[in-house]
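Anyone else keep sequences and C-alpha cells together like this?

Example one:
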Amino acid sequence: MSAVIACRDLSFGYGAESLLKDVNVSIPAGDFVTVVGPNGSGKTTLLKLFLGLLKPARGGVEIFGVSPRRARRRVGYVPQHPRLDPLFPVSAVDVALMGRLGRTPLLGGWRRDDREAALSALDEVGLSDRAGDHFAALSGGQKQRVLIARALAGGPELLLLDEPTAGLDAHIEEGFYRLLEELNKRLTIVMVSHDLGFVSHFVKSVLCVGREVVVHPTSEVTGEVIADLYGGDVRLVRHDHRCSEEGHRHD
C-alpha cells in the first residue's frame, strides 16, 4: 500500500539537545496508529513535523509524497490544547466551520458548501442535534467530538490527534475510540495516547518513540511482564524489532 507518511533519516532537536534521531518509518494508507513513549520523548514534536509546523534538522518527511506544507489541505489536526476561549459565544457549528478556513474567500462570509460541510461533519460525530448549542455548554466528550468535526469539515484524508481523550471518563473514552474506529474506514489516523492498554483494542499499529522510533503491529500478548506493567492481561505490542529501554516504557 502507498505510504501516507514517510520519514527518511529524520532528525530534530531543540537547541543542542537531540530529540528525534534518524527516524525511518512508513505509515500506509488506511492505518490507525497510536504514538506512545515516555514524557518528553518527542511524540507531539513528531506530529508537528508531520504538519510542517517544525522543520527537520536533517532528513525529511513526506505526506502523500510531497512536503507537509503542500499536503496540509489533506490533513486534519486535533491539538492537545485547543486555543478556544470557553467564554467566547460560539456554537458547535461555528467551531466546526473553523475547519473551512483557508478553503473559502476571505470576503463574503461562509458559503453554502462550507455550512453543509460543517453540518455533515457534526452529523458524522453524532452531534447534528447540538449544532446550535453553545460550545462551552457541551460536555468534555462532546467538545472533543466537535473538535474532530472541525478537522473533518476540511475534507482530510489523514487525521492527526494529540492525546484527544485526556481528562475524559473511561466510558466516554471508549465511545470516542469507537468513533475513530468508524472514521478509520475512510481515513488514515495517527494519534498520540498515554493509554496503550486501552487503545490497542482499536488501533492497528503502535509507533514507539524513544531513542528509536519504530512502528509495530498490535497483537494480543499475555504474561507476567504485562501483568506487572498494567495490572492484568491487556493488548500490547508485538515487538518485531528490539526497542530501546525507553521505547518499552509507555506514558
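And example two:
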Amino acid sequence: MAGVIAVGPIFAGVLVVFAAGAALLARWGRLRVSRAIVVAAVRAAVQLVTVSLLIVSVLRAAWSTAAFVAVMFVVAVVTSARRVGAGTSAAWVAVPIAAGPVPTVAALLGSGVLPRTGVAVLPVAGILIGGAMTATSLAGRRALDELGTRRGEYEAALALGFPARDAALEVVRPTAAHALVPALDQTRTVGLVTLPGAFVGVLLGGGSAVQAGATQLLILIALLLVETLAVVLTVELVATGRLGHRPAGQPA
C-alpha cells in the first residue's frame, strides 16, 4: 500500500543497524547507557509486536479498551516511580499521572469532540498518560536533585522560619518548568520541524489534512494541560515529602 512502511527482512535489518549504531555511539561517548539502549529497543519491538497482535481484540469492546488503558496507566506509574528515584511511592506517583488524563479524556468524550470508540479513545488516552508520565519523571527527578545539591539553601530557609514545604518550594520551583521544555518545544515547532504521530496517523488512516491538523492540535494543547498539572502536583508532592526521600530537617 502506498505511503505505508514495508515490513520485512530489510525493515528488520534497518532496525538492528539503528539500535546497534545508537548503542555503539553511546559506548564511544562513554555515556554508560549502551545496554539500556539495546534493552529499550528489544523491549519496544516485543511490546509493539504484542500490542499489534492484540489491538484488534482489545478494540472490540469498551471493557477491554478500558482494561488496556488501565494497564498503560500502571506501567506508566511504575516506570515513573523508578525514574524519580529510591524511596518514591508508586501510590503518590499515580496522583500526577492520573490527575490530568482522566478529566481531560472525560471532557473530550463528554463534549463529543472525541468519538466514543476504542480506536479513538485508546491512542488519545495513551498519549496523555505518556505525557503525564514523562512530566512527572522529569519534574520529580529534577526537584529531588535540586533539594540534594542545594541543601544548604533549604536549611537556611528553615532557619529563617520558613515552613518545611515553603522552604522546599523555594528551592525546587525555579527549575520545575524545565520538565515542560519537551512539550513546549514540540508545540512550538509542530508543522515546521516535525509532523507528530497523530497527524501522520490520521493521514494514513484516510483522513483529510484538515482533520489531521485538528487532531494533532487537540493532542498538543491537551498535553500542555496534562503535563503542566503533572509538574505542579509533582513539585508539591516532593516539597511535602511524599515523593522521594525527605529533605534533612523536614518533619515526618
